[in-house]
Amino acid sequence: MSATIAGFALPVVLIALLIARQNIVVILGVATFAAYYFWGGGELMNVVYDMWDASNREVLLSVPLYILAGAIMSQGSIAARLIDLMRALMRPVPGGLSVAALLACGIFAAISGSSIVTLLAVGSIMYPALIAAGYQRTFSIGMLCAGGTLGIIIPPSIPLILYGIMTQASIADLFIAGVGPGLTLLGVFVLYSMAINWTRDRGTWWSLHELTTSFFRSIGALLTPVVILGGIYSGYFTPTESAAVAVLVAISVETFIHKHGFMRLVRGDIRGFTASVSDMGRLIWRTVGETSTMMGSLFPILAIALSLNVFLTYQQVPNHIVEWLTTYIDSKVMFILLVNLFLLVVGCFLDSGSAILILSPLLPPMAQSYGIDLVHFGIIMTVNLEIGYLTPPMGLNLIVAMGAFREDFVTIIKGVWPFVLLMLAVLVVVSFYPPLSLFLIK
After folding, report:
1. What is the DSSP letter of 207?
2. What region does 316 belong to: left with phi over 0, alpha with psi -120 to 50, or beta?
3. Among 55-59, 136-140, 219-223, 278-282, where is mean pLDDT lowest?
4. What angle do CA 49, 382, 60 make, to 5 degrees?
5. What does each C-alpha distance from 386 to 38, 374, 404 come to in angstroms?
6. Which of 276, 317, 389, 424 could make an S-S bridge to 261, C-beta 3.0–4.6 Å?
């Protein structure tokens, strides 16, 4: 069977399995083994060889390390201290508490790299505070769900790492490219929150005591994204090394600064220092277990997806699809519009990681054939799939919010739809104005 026919048959298989609501491992596994069996000469052992070769990459280590760092920071006191500082800074601003929550989401996104971790870390603290301050439930929950999505576009971002692994694009460039769209989204959310809460929660002027106290309490937390992102952009360490640094910084800040381990050691309070280390040890043990469970489900998916990517590339399937597509779509604008519509639909049913693993072998080569930069297209994909976190039926932030905030699905949907419209507007700008993503890349 020709590579062209294989290129059309594989998507049909994937769609059929999606309709049957099969697990993503089953979907990719069936598609991969079918590809190797029917179109790869029946050599199924090549699946195993390709899985090993594709998975033997240093950059894969960054995924569990960033997840571990985010878990330590969210279960420690870093998130709470960042929120206290943002609340002190935004005291006189209209809708100041909501703006503080969004800014806290933005900063924590620059630490955790995960949408769900950002939503839970900030939302668990801010949602009760927003309700107590008189904010509408629908607005509060919608704003926190939208703020949580910043975790996958503001660097470091786990979906961008996966995209870089699958496409061989520079992960450092992808991180830099995510800054402009991420800050744009954050700015749009902040302006909307101020406008809709213009007469609400406008507090007194800044308190110097509150500002200085909250700043010094959160200085360790503020240094964390500076060290992580500054090291990447300055070239001192790679994205993989930065993930290890993130874990080390998180442990050091929580143990020596937030639990006063350094001062206890200086004072000779060995018992107090031992207590700080012991508390941190229990936290690390718990978060390592949670991270291992999560990675145990992610790595088989990643290995199978990489194996399928090797097969498609070897069979030149993307090239054949590009040749077929360009005979029907000769406009770059039309291609971008169709891809955006397609990805918005995909985001309703798949999480960003799964969608990137499935689609990265096919869509980026098509985008390059229309002159779209590989890094820019990664940002387009990520923003599309970021919106998917807020769209039913499978929007992860919607599902997590129901459990975390004990709200019904209808209330959550009412809260998120204005933010979905704002994100769609930003998506248009990101898609058709590449400098927003690429202006920081040399």
Report:
1. P
2. left
3. 55-59
4. 35
5. 35, 18, 20
6. 276
